[in-house]
Design a protein that fits this description.
By secondary structure, the chain is an all-alpha fold. It folds into two domains: 75-202, no CATH class; 203-280, no CATH class. Helix content is 78%, strand content 3%. It is built from ten helices and two strands, in the order H-H-H-H-H-H-H-H-H-E-E-H. It has helices at residues 2-50, 54-74, 76-100, 107-123, 127-147, 154-164, 176-189, 191-200, 207-232, 247-269, and strands at residues 236-238, 242-246. Strands 1-2 form a two-stranded antiparallel sheet. Helix 2 (54-74) runs antiparallel to helix 3 (76-100), helix 4 (107-123) runs parallel beside helix 8 (191-200) and helix 5 (127-147) packs antiparallel against helix 8 (191-200). The radius of gyration is 29 Å and the shape is globular.
Length: 280
């Protein structure tokens, strides 16, 4: 009889322990779910306040920083090649964006002219002359090619459909003048600005410093505005034009850019930067 009681008591203890363990496991899962849900809510709030997918933006920025710094460490020539790749990608992006509105730009012509212009700007003996000649030739060739009647390629159409994601593409019919004007804008927007960056790199003594200033100062300014605006942003800068911009974000952008510029100049120019003309 005592053995039966002991056996029943052992069963009850085992059952109680099992229920306690199950309760603890369930509580752990509830805590984990609560923590995960809280993390998602926090991330969603950050994305909403910044107006972008922050994890994706941070990952993209990290990859770009590593790629750019690696190219600068290897050689300026490698950095020029990287710029050429980015420039062609930017031209393709604009080509697809304009195609969604029914606008056509001569992508192949723009790509060839842009590549020739930036490489000539860097490797020619007279850099400024090569840049001016390349941009002028690009404008002329772009006008000629933009006025020719052409259709949007199948590959471009696939990119357009993917970008629109089921939305209706614009059915507006644009004139040759509109297509030509847009194409000229692209020349001034992509290859001209890229050539200005390349022109600053022709000073071989401080080429890396110039590249750092031109590439990272805008990024630092944007980063400072992003974090300062998301963290401290209370006063709207211009609600009608850009509702998410704040005065605090503007101040953060300026401070980050100024600090970054001083750090780069002090790091690359050494003591000689104290003798520049802007110093008293």
């Amino acid at each position: 009889m005592s053995q039966i009681k002991q056996h029943n008591f052992a069963n009850e203890v085992s059952k109680a322990n099992a229920e306690k363990t199950a309760s603890e496991v369930g509580l752990s899962f509830d805590k984990a779910d609560t923590a995960t849900h809280g993390t998602h809510e926090t991330l969603s709030d950050i994305n909403r306040r910044t107006g972008r997918n922050m994890p994706q933006a941070v990952a993209t920025a990290a990859i770009l920083v590593v790629a750019i710094v690696s190219c600068l460490i290897i050689s300026i020539d490698v950095f020029i090649v990287l710029m050429a790749i980015f420039m062609v990608l930017a031209l393709w992006e604009l080509h697809v964006d304009f195609a969604t509105l029914g606008l056509r730009i001569p992508f192949v012509t723009l790509s060839i002219c842009s590549l020739v212009t930036i490489f000539a700007t860097y490797y020619a003996k007279w850099h400024a002359v090569a840049m001016a000649s390349g941009i002028t030739a690009s404008l002329l060739l772009t006008v000629i090619c933009a006025t020719l009647s052409s259709t949007i390629s199948d590959r471009t159409m696939q990119a357009v459909e993917k970008k629109l994601d089921g939305s209706n593409r614009s059915s507006y019919e644009h004139t040759l003048f509109t297509n030509t004007s847009v194409s000229l804008f692209v020349v001034l927007y992509i290859p001209l600005l890229a050539s200005c960056i390349v022109l600053a790199l022709t000073n071989t003594k401080y080429a890396v410093a110039h590249a750092m200033l031109l590439v990272f100062l805008p990024a630092l300014s944007d980063t400072g505005g992003l974090f300062a605006g998301a963290w401290l942003g209370k006063h709207k800068l211009s609600p009608r034009i850009s509702p998410k911009k704040s005065v605090e974000g503007l101040i953060g952008s300026m401070l980050f850019a100024i600090i970054g510029a001083y750090a780069i100049i002090a790091g690359f120019y050494g003591s000689s930067w104290f003798n520049f003309w802007w110093m008293p």
